[in-house]
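User: Predict the structure for this protein chain, please.
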Amino acid sequence: LPLSAAANLHPGAEQKVVFITARVHPGETPSSFVCQGIIDFLVSHHPIAKVLRDHLVFKIAPMLNPDGVYLGNYRCSLMGFDLNRHWANPSPWAHPTLHGVKELIIDMYNNPKINLEFYIDIHAHSTMMNGFMYGNIFEDEERFQRQAVFPKLLCQNAEDFSYSSTSFNRDAVKAGTGRRFLGGLLNDTSYCYTLEVSFYSYILGGTAAAVPYTEEAYMKLGRNVARTFLDYYRLNSLVEGPLAPTPKTR
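Assistant: Here is the predicted structure, written as structure tokens:
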């Protein structure tokens, strides 16, 4: 969803694109609330949202498995596929949403006027607490270290996000996921992550008490994901007026 007609959308201007997907596993309902928080913030009148729209293009596919959601499936699509294992070679007949999104991403990757800088796939986790990320492993040490910057910044902005639970891997079982496949396809200026959030609770730093997640808390994490791009791209000085605090989690 390109969200503004700012300078980054003018003909001939280079576009920096952040691509976000969610709900590839239909039972992972928290991912929809996190994605809703991102969308609501980006289209709001918040001064940070305005700066982000002026400098970045956000493309969001909020539900990659609509038939599975409609049917009430936990993990699979109408045809019984775990779509998050078919990114390498999605069929336009059997995996149409993946096929369409992958084609769009490849078109952007091949367009010299577009820099696809982030891909974030939002999920929910049934056993771990807090929000955290999975990233990829690269032989280039500098690229590997640069990949850690965004989750470190997100950890500073979101009290429920855990950098200590964030991990980087290339397990064979994950090879067909969006994060793994696109991490191998895109160039070294692109960063691909899986954003996970607990189904049930988070633990604040320095405490041992679990705080149950609410719909609002999930959406707050989404807002904080969006806000973190301001820090990542060092756009803070462009924000006009006093910053409204992120609403407290209920």
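The chain is about 35% helix and 20% strand.
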